[in-house]
Amino acid sequence: MRRLLFLLTLSALACGFLTPTPTPSASAPPPADSATASPSPTAAAPTESSVPTITPREDAARFPDPARFEWVIVAQGLVRPTDIKNAGDGSGRLFILEQNGRIRILQNGQLQFEPFLDITDRVDSSENEQGLLGLAFHPDFTNNGFFYVNYTKQGGDTVIARFTASGNMTDPNSEVRLLEVAQPFPNHNGGALAFGPDSYLYVGLGDGGDGGDPLGNGQNLNTLLGKILRIDVNSGERYGVPPDNPFGNEIWAYGLRNPWRFSFDALTGDLWIGDVGQGDYEEVDFVPAGTPGGINFGWNRYEGMHDFKGSLPLLNHWPPVLEYNHAETISGCSVTGGYVYRGGMPEWQGIYFYGDYCTGNIWAALHLVNGAEETFNAERLFQIEANITTFGVDEAGELYLAGRDGTIYRLERH
């Protein structure tokens, strides 16, 4: 097992980070520190964007000067956006989820009036964390038109469904429901969807809600709640279970509170997870590409790297690699996981971005490997006047984020 070093840069720009002492995290839509690993293999080609030729950064151990960059408004007027995705089909379109059940298209700088999909008739968004929450396009979307959504249906249960697109519109009647999961409470639904480098669909589900995981779902392998699922959408009547899933069912990883947003590095295939915390700590988890499943992220025995309920060792526990503390007023309350930058600005290559829903703080993180040692550096580089609900990338790998007020921003050079 590789020794992990956590070099968390504590400066006027980086506040609220702690050095490690094993433990997990979790809390509401939007979403920090430790892991175990072996060297990260190179992953297959990216599934959600066409990444341009990468120009290496001049200094791989330092962050760019944030004063040279800004978050520029590229769209406004959306209704509680929850996710931003591209289809990887060469169209240049961005697809933005609205919590009430619509998907809107941003193309050539213009927000299209007609929705790409409208399922407001079947989506329950009556509570803060319910609604249309996640989107993923099939790796062969260009040919089959398949895309997948994660939403809460009327009554609050989670639905993972497939639709078939036709141009800029989708017939709501093309829905095929793959999976439904009962939700005991109206919060901690998770919501993230993403295809991995293995072309399997990964599904993020929260612990089912209320405070402190009262039903013990995070550590219970007899429920899909508090898990990341991994399914094969190309086999079976609705889907198949990959033969190397660790428990012989849909579960790939467990011990999560509310994995609101996760993403795969488009170049390496590494997985980054923003798991929303309970009351004190927010966490980011990291899984190197090629790691088999069965990982236990620790909730509700741990919040971040700290004891929450009990202190006995957990089987296969992977603490987070980054965390921040609610006690520091500058830090915030709910982590929103983001993306590793793979766009056209060399300064940001390989840097992972994540933010806080309550404060608009945006951190940058670096994963550095030196032989058998790993380092995760993090600094708070930006703060914007927005409740950050999600990040996203376009086909060129450029980075976006959404504010709950309906504003979409893109990271640009001054």
Descriptive overview:
It is a single chain. It contains one helix and 30 strands. Strand 29 and strand 30 (408-413) form a beta hairpin. It has a single domain (3-413), classed as Neuraminidase (6 Propeller). It is 1% helix and 36% strand.
Q: What amount of the residues lies in strands?
A: 35-45%
From the spread of the alpha carbons, the general shape counts as globular
Radius of gyration: 19 Å
Distance between the termini: 43 Å
Overall strand count: 30
User: What would CATH call the architecture?
Assistant: 6 Propeller
- The CATH superfamily name is TolB, C-terminal domain
Q: What's the structural domain tally?
A: 1
Question: Main sheet?
Answer: 5 strands, mixed
Number of helices: 1
Structural class: mainly beta
Indicate the CATH class. Answer: Mainly Beta
CATH topology: Neuraminidase
Low-confidence stretches: 1-54
- Helix share of residues? under 10%
Biggest β-sheet: strands ordered side by side in the sheet: 1-27-26-25-24
Q: How would you state the average pLDDT, rounded?
A: 87
What labels would you give this structure?
414 residues, mainly beta, Neuraminidase, five-stranded antiparallel sheet, 1% helix, disordered N terminus
Concise account of the structure shown:
The chain is 1% helix and 36% strand. With 414 residues, it is mainly β.
Explain the layout of strands and helices.
Elements lengths: L2 E3 L63 E7 L5 E6 L7 E5 L3 E6 L2 E2 L5 E2 L13 E6 L3 H4 L1 E7 L5 E9 L2 E2 L5 E6 L11 E3 L5 E5 L21 E5 L19 E4 L6 E4 L6 E5 L5 E7 L7 E2 L5 E2 L2 E2 L14 E4 L9 E2 L15 E5 L4 E10 L2 E11 L4 E6 L5 E5 L4 E6 L1
Parallel strand pairs: 1-27, 16-20
Antiparallel strand pairs: 2-30, 3-4, 4-5, 5-6, 5-7, 8-9, 9-10, 10-11, 10-12, 13-14, 14-15, 15-16, 17-18, 18-19, 19-23, 21-22, 24-25, 25-26, 26-27, 28-29, 29-30
